Amino acid sequence: DVLCDSLPYHDGEPHFVTPKQIADGVYRYMPPVPEFLVDRVRVANGFATTLPAAPEPSIVAVLSGSGVVEETATTTTATTTESGDAEGAPPQHDVNSGHIFVLAPHTELRVNSDSELQLYRATARYELEAAR
User: Fold this and answer.
1) For residue 103, what are the CA distances in angstroms to 2, 23, 123?
2) What is the Cα–Cα distance from 25 to 70, expressed in whole angstroms?
3) Which of 45, 53, 86, 122 could lock onto 108 through a cystine, CB 3.0 to 4.6 A?
């Protein structure tokens, strides 16, 4: 009962969120809630784009396609995963439909597609300009 009483409910038509393009193939959805945002990335076969870094951890889900993603820390406080090589090359991961992973804060993601690739990132809400 406490949970139901604390959540706002609105009757009527569904609220549709119009995305804003923030990079080539990257669209940001800012739902009418203060807690989170969602980015959609669509990359055509053989192309690439970069998902900007977020100041908080992110959950990334690959919905369709396949490719390679490359993590790049944008600050010295960002951590790199164990898959980086000894010379400090950015970690790369093969991704396919159904893969879900956590992206460290302050880490941009270069997305290279082998086939048309679509992924989504959910993260704490922030303004893009403030994160730079």
Assistant:
1) 33, 18, 10
2) 16
3) 53
Encode pLDDT of 96-123 as tens digits.
999 999 999 999 999 999 999 999 999 9
Structure tokens at 26: 């990257």
Question: Tokens 């992110």 map to which residue?
Answer: 58
H/E stretch holding 128 reads helix 128-131
| ∠ CA 60-128-62, rounded to 5° | 15
Q: How far is CA 109 from CA 43, 56, 58, 105, in A?
A: 13, 14, 11, 11
- Which of these, 110, 126, 84, lies nearest to 23 by C-alpha position? 110
Comparing C-alpha atoms, which of 117, 10, 104 is closest to residue 56? 104
